Every structure is written in C-alpha cells, then in structure tokens.
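Now for our specimen.

. . .
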Amino acid sequence: MDDAAKLNALAIVGGTTSFETNYQAVARIGYCSGVLVSPTVVLTNGHCLDGPVDHIEIAGTDARVTSCTRHPQYEPGHRVHDIGACHLASPSTVTPMQIDAEAQLVVGTEVRLVGFGRSAAFANDSGALRVVESIVTRNDNDGVDVGTSQRTACPGDSGGPVLVHSEGHWRVVALLRGAAGAICASPSQTVGLHQEIDWLRSASGTDFAPSGRPYSGESVVLMVVSVCAVSVAIARSVSRANANRSPHRRAVGPKDNC
C-alpha cells in the first residue's frame, strides 16, 4: 500500500485501548481495520484492498485469506460503495459481529467507533485496538458522518465498524472510511451497510435477514413452524365452511403434516 493509501486509511481519537472480548471480531488488515460478519467473511473498505491480502489478524491470530472482492461499483475517491469483503480459508473461532442494516442513523445517535488506527495525527501508536463513544454528526444525501473533532477516527481505522446498541447488543451499521475534514480532528465519513445489503448477501454467501443479521437455524425452524401453523388453520377453516354448506357431507379435517 502506498503512502497516500496509508494516510487515507483512517485511528481512534479520544478513545481507550480495548481488551474486551466484545470487539474480538474487529480485524486488522494491513494498514486498515475490518470486521468479521460471518465465520468466513471480513468486511473492510474497498480502498483497503489496493494490494494483495493473504492474511488478516483476528483476535491476535493470523487468518489465511483465499480471496478479496470489492463492490463492482466501487470508484477510488468516492465513499459510495467503498466496501469490500475478504474470504477466510477456514471458519474463524471468533464470534462474528451482527450487523443491523435497518438502524436509523439520525443526527445525535450514539455510536461506537472501533479500529486499530492511531490516537492522533502524528502519533506512532497504530496497531492497538481502540474504541470511542461518539455520535452521528451528519446525515444527508452525501452520506453519514460520525464523530467530533475530539472523538473520531484516524489513519488505520478505515474499514472498522461503526456500532449502535440494539436489542442488548452492539451491532455494525456502517464502516469507517476517512476524514470528512482535518485528519484525526473532524468527523469521519462512513459507508452505510443498509445500501449494501444486497451486495453483502451475494459477496458473503450468507442469507442475512432484513435486519442484516444472518438467519440462524433456530429462526428458520420457527419460520417453517409458523408457516405450517397458518396453513393448517386456513385448511381447517375451509373444511368447516364446506361442511356448513353441505350438512349431509362428512367434514374431513386437514392432516397436521407440519
């Protein structure tokens, strides 16, 4: 990665070094950050994939990478579609972070920014996982910005997750991308996952639910049971209606094959 890419690869300013297991799924990809969203898929920025990636550090361990792909509409220098996915050679033992593609990031929403970047523009301390609590500072047609001049991202954080608290968990709603103004002293641009969910399903091979969370085996079973229950109820209703119209006909109820 060249010097310009290193500089553009947004570290957490105003935060603290984190040793929490909650953030083990936050990955280090060269001079960038990323996040494990399924056992074999790590998301990051498209501009973080300028060079070859053969391994990714997850929870202090190098994981071998088989391939990385960018969004097909990615254009260097543009925040829209600045997203990519890397596939691991074998499933990670680390629990992936859930995503939430439906979160409403209105101005003032509390978020957490997580990454492996520097703590200040001229600091030489990248490589430590840091987290800072901040807020959404802009949401318009140009995109969503997060952070303030004193609580934001910095070189090394690009591709790291922007988290919101939902249903008792911190979930990924966007990826950090780059400074909206002064490096390490202004809000940070983001790439929202809500507009990338279809590409994410295709690139990851994971059937994410509308909320962005992967369908679990339990949720699939519940959906099947629910559909069966509705089908049986409808069949019984039709059977009773037929019996009422033909009182001399023996009503035959549906079989509960579900």
Observations:
- The chain has a mean pLDDT of 80.
- The two ends are 56 Å apart (CA to CA).
- DSSP finds three helices and 13 strands in the chain.
